[in-house]
Amino acid sequence: MDQATSSPCYEIRVQGVLGDRLLSAFPALTGEPRDGATVLSGCLPDQAALHGVLHQIESLGLKLLDLHQVS
């Protein structure tokens, strides 16, 4: 079974439109600007990886607006 299809997928919305430099801090996710925010989306292998992304968001001083699992 493909890991991407068996791993939970998320959409994480952060305040502001992130440039390429900040987006590069999230190599497992794709970033898309929406309504003055950025939606980071992708599948993560486990909950520890999700916590790592959330820690990175906090470390970069970004404001988390929304997080939800899409699959």
SS elements, strand count: 4
- The backbone outline, from C-alpha atoms, is globular
The major pleated sheet works out as: 4 strands, antiparallel
Strand order of the largest sheet: 2-3-1-4
- Average pLDDT: 93
User: Which percent band covers the strand fraction?
Assistant: 35-45%
> Helical proportion?
25-40%
Q: From N to C, what is the helix and strand string?
A: HEHEEHE
Distance between the termini: 16 Å
Highest-level CATH class: Alpha Beta
Work out the count of structural domains: 1
| Uncertain ranges | none
> What's the gyration radius in Å?
12 Å
CATH architecture: 2-Layer Sandwich
Number of helices: 3
CATH topology: Alpha-Beta Plaits
Which class do the helix and strand fractions yield?
Answer: alpha+beta
Keywords summarizing the entry:
71 residues; alpha+beta; Alpha-Beta Plaits; four-stranded antiparallel beta sheet; 3 helices; 4 strands; 30% helix
What's the structural blueprint in terms of helices and strands?
Blueprint: H1 3-6, E1 9-15, H2 20-23, E2 30-34, E3 37-43, H3 47-59, E4 64-69
Antiparallel strand pairs: 1-3, 1-4, 2-3
